[in-house]
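Figure 2 data, in text form.
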Amino acid sequence: MTPAIFLDRDGTLIEEREYLADPAGVVVFPGVGAALRRLQDAGFALVIVTNQSGIGRGYYTEADMHRVNARLCELLAADGVRFAKIYFAPEAPGQPSRGRKPSPQFLFDARDELGLDLAASYVIGDKLIDLECGWNAGVKRCVLVRTGYGATLEKQSPEALARAWVVDGVPAAVERILACK
């Protein structure tokens, strides 16, 4: 079984833009591509798990989201990064959803579909629901990045982060993860 890194998209890999529907708006945070490549080279599968409530709210279409994801993949491919899979929950909050974070369902799906070892895996995100998703799935460690909404969460709810690592961004998360391998 393979360990994985489960990554939130908006605010973690790319700049937070509320309800991003235009691929031209994708801005990858500095150092993310090289950092993800190091994880990939160390044997981790890379999986994106993202809530995309803008679809359920009618702000953009699923096709728009796929174009944004394709642009992200294109930009990171320049560093040799390849995602094993991208899971997305299109439902708005309050709508019935199988996989909307903090549900761990997509992590369980990835475990079963991709042969992943959740106990040796990590979640990296900028919101408490990202961390709760990982804790609910039994991953090794959850990492909050201060990009996106992370710095605000750290200031407002530090007690909720007692079990998490808190770092400046994905490159710093990668340093911590690889130091434990």
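Caption note: Residues 140-181 form one domain.
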